[in-house]
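Supplementary Text 2. Reproducibility record for the structural model of the 92-residue chain.

All settings were left at their defaults, and a single model was retained for analysis rather than an ensemble. We include the record here because the model underlies the residue-level annotations in Supplementary Table 4.
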Amino acid sequence: MGIVLYFSTVSSNQEIKKHQQRIEMILDGKKIQYEKVDISANTDEKTRMREIAGDPKALPPQIANGDQYCGDYQQFETAVEDETLEEFLKLK
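Retained model, structure tokens:
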């Protein structure tokens, strides 16, 4: 399955939109393939995202590798800063 970015196209929260764009920009820049899943278009996907994250109130963006939870935006950002992105994404 690979990397999955759970996001929302109908968020009115500018911070969430910025975080989603930053994740996409970094993944694209590093040529890491990923699938985008819009949780606003399908409530089943929102439920799935929250189950994988282990948090019934999790908000996008959330990142998984298949069914393995990787983390949220803050954890992603930390991995980028620490240069451990591949480990964070469970690619190594």
